[in-house]
Amino acid sequence: MIPDIETQSITDIENFQNALLQKQIAYLLENSPFYQRRFKAENIQIDTIKTVEDLQKISVTTKADLQMYNQDFFCVDKTEIRDYATTSGTLGDPVTFGLTDNDLERLAYNEMLSFQGAGVQKGDLVQLMTTMDRRFMAGLAYFLGLRKLGAGIVRVGAGVPPLQWDSILRYQPKFLIAVPSFLLKMIEYAEENNIDYKSSSVKGVICIGEALRTTDLQPTLLAQRIQEKWNINLFSTYASTEMSAAFTECNQFAGGHHHPELIISEIVNENNEPVANGELGELVVTTLGVEAMPLLRFKTGDMVRKHTEKCKCGRSTYRLGPVEGRKQQMIKYKGTTLYPPAMHDAVAHFKEIKLHLIEISSNEIGTDEILIRIFSEDTTDEFIGKLKDYFRARLRVTPQIIFEDELTLQKIIYDPLSRKPITFIDKR
Ligand SMILES: [Zn+2]
Predict the structure, then answer these.
(1) For residues 236 and 179, what is the distance between their CA atoms, to the nearest angstrom?
(2) Neighbours of ion ligand 1 (CB under 5 A)
């Protein structure tokens, strides 16, 4: 089931990717108004870029580029577009992505590999607990991938624990696709309603949106809390509309595998130069085989590490660790730098906290202030003290913490226009 290329030597994979990259450069030169202009400005010829290392010779593509010149990234006529998806831009307007028929096929192939890696087989049933519409690409990609794999799908969508449990008990899915913190809600609902979740049909969950692994690939507190209660496998998957590709964990749970036929990745420092394997840097991607809106050296803003030691599953491809943060969400706090995911995970340590929202703002002396708004079962001063001590010990920061009522937080966190819960607000 594993494509041949994924078990070849590193050199073979590099050569394979270099050949695909050359094709990609030729395609952009021929079809992309944005890259035609850029190649001309930077004196890039068809033979300037022959290898992944040569990508250093061309400047990166930013989210601002995508937003300002959105139309110029399209390489095909509008009549060839079969599906539109959008991502939120940094400057206000969304960025539009189009997919051709072949792009949808590529997306399906990508998700098929991703699900196979997590152990989903032909004939298995998977319950989709994320949104399929609202111009998001992910839900559609899961559907197409599972269909291509020959698996069945129950499209329940986001939220609504009673309907989720009704579907699980009725159709007996083996896998779920879900936001991991929602699994805690599912467990809570099951406990309150005497549903025997521990012996349900569910064996594994493909998890999106929140980190399941720490920097050194150990289970996060969130993953531990779920698995303490419910003995199921939790697989991380990481993808974005811009990448049109996913990095999903195999049965070794040690970061998401790279698929060489779909994407080239670089992990870079502030100056867009590669960092050493295992070091934290920003992920920069070059899509392979995309027709409508291919991207070259796109800066994702996601801070990740590349793990290159051979995986025990037999694939020789590298893996990406968890997204440790978004570059623009880096918080500078009294000489420490940190990212929201580490704080979310620290909050996950406390079962009393039912909802939380982290807000970052700048104070008058130009340093960042951290405010955590929580809805908690325990609202005593002692509990606040315990929280602060834990944060200080674990992350070397002492946030301000205030109690809120459930409804106030719910309204902000579960915004119907957002695919993922909003648990971080940046006011800087
Ligand atoms: Zn593996």
Answers:
(1) 10
(2) 250, 252, 311, 313, 315
Topology annotation, domain 1-324: Rossmann fold (3.40.50)
User: Exposed, middle or buried, 425 (CB in 10 Å: 0-12/13-18/19+)?
Assistant: middle
Query: What does the radius of gyration of the chain's CA atoms come to, in whole angstroms?
Result: 22
pTM: 0.90
Residues 362-414 have pLDDT tens digits of 887 777 889 999 999 999 999 999 999 999 988 888 899 999 999 999 999 98
What's the CA-to-centroid distance between 186 and ligand 1, angstroms?
Answer: 29
Superfamily name with CATH number, domain 330-426: ANL, C-terminal domain (3.30.300.30)
Per-residue pLDDT of 314-367, as tens digits, reads 999 999 999 999 988 888 887 778 889 889 999 999 999 999 999 999 887 777
Query: Ligand 1 centre and the CA of 311: distance in Å?
Result: 5
Residues 306 and 265 sit within 8 Å (Cβ to Cβ): yes
